[in-house]
Structure formats: C-alpha cells, structure tokens
Amino acid sequence: MTITVSIDTLQSALRHVLGERIQQLVLAHGELTLTVRDSDYLAVALLLRDHPELAFEQLIDLCGIDYSAYKDGAHSVFTDAPRYAVVSHFLSLTHNWRLRLRVHATDEHMPQVDSINDIWSAANWFEREAFDLYGILFRNHADLRRILTDYGFIGHPFRKDFPTTGHVEMRYDAEQKRVIYQPVTIEPREITPRIIREDNYGGLH
Q1: Per-residue pLDDT averaged across 180-200, rounded?
Q2: 4, 10, 25, 94: most buried, per Cβ within 10 A?
Q3: 128, part of any domain
Q4: pLDDT tens figures, 118-149
Q5: What CATH code is carried by the domain that includes residue 73?
Q6: Spatial separation of the C-alpha atoms in residues 141 and 118, rounded to whole Å
Q7: What is the pLDDT of residues 84-108, one digit of tens each?
Q8: Using an 8 Å Cβ cutoff, are 166 and 155 in contact?
Q9: Taking phi first (over 0 means left), then psi (-120 to 50 degrees means alpha), and beta for anything else, what does residue 29 get?
Q10: In a domain, 182, yes or no
Q11: Could you give the number of structural domains in the chain?
Q12: Contacts for 26-35 with beta carbons within 8 Å, 24 or more apart?
C-alpha cells in the first residue's frame, strides 16, 4: 500500500512539475518510466534534481539501447521510434523513490544526446560506456573516449548489426616483436542442429 501511494505521489509530482515536457509516462511492474524529447532532456534532468517535489539527488545507472529488431519485430510503442535511446535510473533519497528516464537520439546515423555529467558527475563513465558500446555521442561531454574496448577497436559491439566475430583481431607478431591488428581470420558458418531420432524412444512404437 505504501509503495502504491508513493508511486502515485511521484506520478502526480512529475505531471505537475514537467507538464508538456512529458512525452510518455508509463507505470509497469511497479516502476515508472518517463520518456522525454531530446530537446527537453537537459531541462528535465535539472528539474528532476533540483525541484523539491522530485529531488532525485542520485544517478544510479545510465546505458544505451539499440531498439532495432526490438522483440524480433513484435509490435511495440517503439516500432516507429528512433533506433537508439539512452536510459537512466535515478534515486531520490529525500522521498525514497526511483525513476527511469529515457530519451531517444533522433539521428540514427549519428545518434547523440546531451551529456548530463554536469548535473550528475556519476554520468561520466556511464556515458563513455554508452559511447563505446553503442556509438551514442554525448554533446558537451568533456572527455568522451572509449572505456571498455581497445583504442584500435573498430565499431561499437553492442549494436545489433555488429558481427559476433568483430572486424579485426590482434595477435603478437614475433618478427615485429609487438602486438598487431589484422582482419578477422574466423570464417563465418551456420550451425545446423543435429536431430537424432530413435525408433523406440521412450518405449513408443
């Protein structure tokens, strides 16, 4: 009962404070997901942190999402939405409630959204991860570099069209006495499951 009342209070507070900046507000599985436009992202982030009715002092997590082939093409609210999105999770210590915030990057070929690192400093490495793994650019991020893959890595491995074998591989070259990069030597192959049928399996005839 207390949780329901708390979520209802948060939902009302979000509608009161953010108004038309709310693109979508969904309650599912006991959690609220707020979706806003890229143009409103920074303004909403500031209100989430600074408005006393919301007071989300802590950024818990931030990640990228690739919605291409979402649910294998099943109908969803994101069928016609841009391919890439950034999702953040926030905690209000003052009010003891949580919120998920989503913003879609409007340009599929060069996805980018504003950085919220100046609002929550914890966003720094999270945004670098989203850039590294999804290729999402964060405008005004002070140090947007790869953080998980190697400096010579090509592409963004969490994109759904990224090949599972990658584009290049690295090995130690004894003649050059250093690590070198070369095109992937693994040949792609399709694995067909082998089906074995027994005439009397399970005692059935």
Answers
A1: 70
A2: 10
A3: yes
A4: 999 999 999 999 999 999 999 999 999 999 98
A5: 3.30.460.80
A6: 9
A7: 999 999 999 999 999 999 999 999 9
A8: yes
A9: left
A10: no
A11: 1
A12: 30/3, 31/98, 31/100, 32/7, 32/98, 32/99, 32/100, 33/100, 33/101, 33/102, 34/99, 34/100, 34/101, 34/102, 35/101, 35/102, 35/103, 35/104
Helix pair angle (41-50, 2-18), 10° resolution:
130
Alpha-carbon distance of 153 to 142, in angstroms, equals: 21
The predicted model scores a pTM of: 0.79
Q: State the Cα–Cα distance between residues 125 and 116, nearest whole angstrom.
A: 11
Q: CB neighbours of 160 closer than 8 A, spacing ≥ 6?
A: 66, 68, 69
Place of tokens 């002070």: 142
Residue 44: its H or E element: helix 41-50
CB-CB neighbours of 186 under 10 Å: 10
Q: Does 15 fall in a domain?
A: yes
